[in-house]
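In this section we walk through a basic example: taking a raw amino acid sequence and producing a predicted 3D structure, encoded as discrete structure tokens. The instruction is simple. Fold the sequence below.
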Amino acid sequence: MLPPENTCAIVLAGGAGTRIQHLYPHLPKPLIPVCGHPFLEWVCRFWVRLGIRRLVISLGYKAAEAECRIAEWNWPGVSITTVREETPLGTGGAVRFAAAALPDADPLVILNGDSLAVGPIEEVWLMLSDPGTAGVVVGIAVENAERYGTLRIGEGGRLLGFEEKRSGRGWINAGTYIFSKRVLSLFPAASPLSMEYEVFPCLLAGETRLRAFRMEGDFLDIGTPESLKRAESFIGRHRQELEF
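The resulting token sequence is shown next.
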């Protein structure tokens, strides 16, 4: 199943990546090269393969370098726009800022530019087609959720909340959200604004109905030196799913 016609993606790529900054001091984290391309490019390629044709990439740290690299991507039929945060807005603030460049977009796919979940995701569009569902959070199972918060999922896949970090197997937040655009009006007005610590608690405390999609797939974020070492093998395993 293809995404709805007006679906657009917002890719959050403005962070400095403090835990790995010493390894690539001249690059913003999402531009770290993996298998010959910036990791950010692999993230975008996965969603373009799924049918997304408009992307807005939100930049901050070393934005000029990122803009130059992104300008080199020439993908027929795909529109890519960059926006630059002049001051750090937080993840939630960056979503709100980037959405202003997509006035007619609905729904919105929100992605972290430094992580990638690869697997079948077409069912998420069916979940979002339910008028009672305002948004879907993609979860993915990992053997050890110690680095991540886990999702608390109720009957019918309803998202009930986020658990604290704990060891052992769990369904983690894959950093991928699909929202009906009306949800943006429910974001707190604060700036900077965090998706994880401010937006989701606000939405879940109200009557906004969010669901969790359990993706059966593979996941990587490149936020630590240890996980970055796995990036080449991760992309190598999934290269056929990312090329076009």
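Looking at the output, two observations stand out. Residues 45 and 242 are 6 Å apart (CA to CA). The mean pLDDT is 94. In the next section we compare this with other chains.
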